What we know:
Elements: H1 8-29, H2 32-39, H3 43-50, H4 53-72, H5 83-100, H6 102-113, H7 120-147, H8 156-180, H9 191-206, H10 212-215
Helix pairs in contact: 1-2, 1-4, 1-6, 4-6, 4-7, 5-6, 5-9, 6-8, 7-8, 8-9
Amino acid sequence: MKEINIDQQKYERILQAALKQFATYGYQKANTDEIARDAGVSKGLIFHYFGKKQVLYERTVSRVIDFLIEQSNDLFTKQYTDLVEVVVVSTQYKMKLEQEYPDYIHLLIAAYAQNHSLPKAIQAKLAQYMDENMEIAHQLLTGIIEQLPIKKEIAKQDVIQLVLGVFNQVSVESLQFLKAHPEVTEVKQMQFLAERAEIYMGILQTGFLENKAEEK
């Protein structure tokens, strides 16, 4: 296969223009003519570099996912006191990212909302991102649970698995919501899911059965 000589500045301008277009209109409705115009290049150059619209979308989404995963490392620098705080801080962090990088967040939300109609390669990349997010959550929660005053008769690993199960349930509910509401593009439109996660974590920490000893 013939090697393509790439002008890095033009390549970056194309990806930035594609990010804006895909974040605003989604994969199906994004217009490569508009991307070319915003990037200040010919449409032919876009297809010369990327071959087809699907590849351009894949590269754009991959870049966004890699960037957001890298940004997630900041969550490890904070000291947490309980599980509810993890949910609160994570939600605040996502909203902060949306303020600083709105197109990144809007593109990712739109990608999940339209996941069923996207190319298989993108679906696989999104699944990978979800798996990596769960791994980050596992590492965070393990460190926090190690510091909590857990009852001696309860194994910490069991607590970790239980909490991860709740996180996974919230993720499932999020994806179901996005599938049912493909018009959603902002984190604040899913705020109720974060509030639900706080409730779940609060119940896990305090328990849900009445203390019979205290009632007597």
